[in-house]
Write a structure and sequence with these properties.
2 domains; 7 helices; alpha/beta; Elongation Factor Tu (Ef-tu), domain 3; Rossmann fold; binds FE2/S2 (inorganic) cluster; about 290 residues; binds flavin-adenine dinucleotide
Length: about 290
Amino acid sequence: MIAAPRAWRQTAGVIARQAPHGAGHWWLDLDVPASFAPPAPGQFVQLLLPPAASPVLLPRPMSVAAVTRRRGGLRLGFLYAPVGAGTRALAALPAGDRVEVLGPLGHGYPLERPGTPVLVAGGRGIAPLLFAADALARQGRRCELVFGARSRDLLVGLDDARRRLAAMGGRLHLSTDDGSRGVRGNVVDVLERLAPRLAFPLVLHACGPHAMLKAVARWGLRHGASTWLAMESVMACGTGVCRGCPLPRSASAVAGFDGARTPSLHGNREWAMCCTEGPVFEAGELDWERIE
Ligand SMILES: Cc1cc2nc3c(=O)[nH]c(=O)nc-3n(C[C@H](O)[C@H](O)[C@H](O)COP(=O)(O)OP(=O)(O)OC[C@H]3O[C@@H](n4cnc5c(N)ncnc54)[C@H](O)[C@@H]3O)c2cc1C
Ligand code: FES
C-alpha cells in the first residue's frame, strides 16, 4: 500500500501566470491559500472553470507539476495540452482570473521506497516526474529520468527538464521513436540499456500514455522492479462518488480483495477507482490486457 492521501478541499485559485511551454503545451501557475494541503508528486486536482468562461459542465483533472510556498499560500504549477473544449477555455483565461480547485486528490508516488529511483516519462508525463525528482532531491537522493516521445519536437519542456535535473544532480536519458534525439526507440529500450548499470532494487515511477505505461509495467514485472504508474481515466468527481473512472483489477488483486476492509469510495472486487485508489497504481494491481 502507498501512503494515505492528505485531506482535500475545494477552494478558489487565482491564475498567476499562463505561458506556452513547447510542443503545443501550456504552463499554468495557480495560487491557492495556505489552507490547501500541499500536493505530493503524482497527486492531482480537479479544476472547475468559472461558469461564464466554461463551455463544459464538469471539472477537468490535472496532475500537479510543481508546488512552491509563497506568502499566504501555495503556488501550484501545471503542464497541460489544450485538447478539447475545457482545456482550450482554460488556456484562454488571463492572469488574475479565478478557477475552483478541488484537491489534493488521489495517491502519489511512494518516493520513500528504498532502491534506485528511475523516473519514466512519456510526452507531457514529464510534469509530475520533475516534481518527483524535486522531492527526491530534497531527500538527498539522485534519480535517473528516462524521457521519451515520438520525435524531438514532442519532448515537452526539454530545456526546462534538463536545467532542473542538472541542478538536482539527476541524470536524463532520452529516446525518440524516429531517433531525432537520444536513443532511437522507446523508453523501454532505454530501460534495457540502463538497468544493467544501476544498483538494484529499482523503483520505477512512470507517467505517460497508457500504451507506454503498459510496456513499462510489463518490463517492471518481468525484471522484479517495484513499478508505479500514474493512470488516467475520464473523471467527473475525482473523489470516488460518481463511479465513473474504473480500471480493471489484476487476477491477483481480485483474489486478494477484501470487501470488508475496502473504503466505500474505493471500487469493488473487479474494478479499482482511478481517482481514489490511484491515480498511481503498482504494476501488479491492474489487468494490463484490458487497459487501452
Ligand atoms: C489524474 C489525471 C491527471 C491528468 N493530468 C493531466 C496533465 O497534467 N496535463 C494534461 O494536459 N492533461 C492531464 N489529464 C488529462 C486531462 O484531464 C484531459 O485532457 C482533459 O480533461 C480534457 O478536457 P477537455 O474538455 O479539454 O477535452 P474533452 O473535449 O473532454 O476531450 C478531448 C479529448 O481528451 C480525452 N479526455 C477527456 N478527459 C480525459 C481524461 N480524464 N483522461 C484522458 N483523456 C481524456 C477525450 O476522450 C478526448 O479525446 C489528466 C487526467 C487525469 C485523469
Ligand atoms: S471520478 Fe468519480 S469516482 Fe472517480
